[in-house]
Write a structure and sequence with these properties.
There is one protein chain. The mean pLDDT is 92. This protein is mainly alpha-helical. Helix content is 73%, strand content 3%.
């Protein structure tokens, strides 16, 4: 399989995760609205609020972030402070783009490694989260190494695009016009 085809397929995977993130956001909104409605409107046979809604909403927000982060990085819509890069000479800014990408890749790989170790250790220990709901701890830990592994792959694609492009700073998601 060619790199271009693999990159397109990877982009489709990330777009699918973005759609999954949108569905998680919709579900989170429904949980919150349901909780507020049930707390304020007495419905015979139903509880006064959903005791688990805060806990589930927190986990959904985390899952939403893990689903969307690789897609946002691919689209260049992540947080990026590039004012200095736009002011520097093109070649210097390009080299600093490399520094940022290498550091980003290193951070992603470290997070993948430690996230996987934590999830596997939690699974092996049979650890549970005990709040309103009792759930295996690894359920909440597992999305982290998966998301950071995807971010690592995207960082490699970013580096390939930077290498193939002009010797200048990126112009995707530039805040200075």
């Amino acid at each position: 399989m060619s790199r271009a085809r693999f990159e397109r397929g990877f982009g489709s995977l990330l777009a699918g995760l973005a759609w999954a993130g949108a569905l998680v956001l919709l579900a989170m909104m429904l949980v919150i609205v349901g909780d507020v409605a049930l707390r304020n409107i007495a419905v015979p046979g139903l509880p006064r609020g959903l005791a688990w809604s805060n806990e589930v909403s927190e986990l959904m927000l985390y899952l939403l972030t893990m689903c969307l982060a690789p897609w946002m990085l691919r689209r260049g819509q992540h947080i990026r402070v590039d004012v200095l890069l736009q002011a520097l000479p093109r070649r210097t800014a390009w080299m600093l783009e490399w520094v940022g990408d290498v550091l980003g890749l290193a951070c992603c790989l470290v997070m993948t490694w430690y996230g996987a170790r934590a999830a596997l250790a939690s699974h092996a220990a049979g650890a549970v989260n005990i709040k309103t709901l009792v759930t295996p701890e690894w359920w909440s830990l597992a999305p982290l190494p998966i998301a950071f592994a995807l971010l690592s792959v995207e960082m490699l694609f970013r580096m390939a695009r930077l290498h193939a492009g002009p010797r200048a700073p990126r112009h995707d998601a530039v805040s200075t016009g």
